[in-house]
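quick one, 295 residues, struct below
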Amino acid sequence: MLEIVNIAIVIPVFNRKKITIEGLQNLTNAISFYKQESKNIFNFKIIVVDDGSTDGTGEWIQLNQPEVVYLKGDGNLWWSGSINMGAKYAVNTLKTSHVLFWNDDTLCAKEYFNELEKVILVNNQLLKSVLVSKIFWMSSEKSLLFNFGCYFNPKNGKKTIIGLNSEDIYNEIIPVDWSGGMGTLIPSSILIEVNFLDDKNFPQYDGDIDFFLRAKEKKHKAFAIPTLHLFNNPETTGIHSNNKLKDLPTILTSFRSLYNVKKNVKFYSRHSNTIVSWFLLLREYISMMRKLKIR
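---
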């Protein structure tokens, strides 16, 4: 008989009250559906880490979702620091066996946790690995994928998003190298061994992939589960940009920028320190700056 699995769901939030409310309501509805329609091998605790919101997000959560653990940051945690605060509280205080990374702009199918239970009942050894979800674009009429996990090539630094903007053809569990911060289930033992996310070097971007790759170095496996369906809002991913040449200093230094030089140097030094990868990275910067000049 499988023992009860205690899962803490960690959600970083910051000044997106409407999106946060919608996300929390969707999540609590899915948990309620699970409790009614399953064998109930999971216990859940939701942890919201609010990194200094000023739009009433925290007040709404504490008034309307009193069962949620509400942790407050000082505005300097960013994504990785917020995840770490919630994950460390889950592991050290709540003593949960697993932590599920979530985003406030993530919506899940109502059967999400029921499907997770089915997978675990078939193969409970998966609970020893990192499990990631299948993520669709929320507004896509054709149910196009955002990703079904990702691959990483350490020889050239290439990050490949599996299934990006394609129709869903993935019906089997597959091994992956990494995934983003939504719908990622991690055993607490792995979080402790890998020493959580590196929030100093990767406060906003690449904290997720860096964690996965450090876990892989310690022989931990990650699998993408095809029946765990999530939906992500393309308008809140932060991947769109209309920057101009005058914005170059900010692009090269901001935590919100994928082209933050310090972050990328640290990442490539740690995970892809080859001549080819450095050359391709330099080419990316040149391409970015040419686009800025055109604008």
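The two ends are 62 Å apart (CA to CA).
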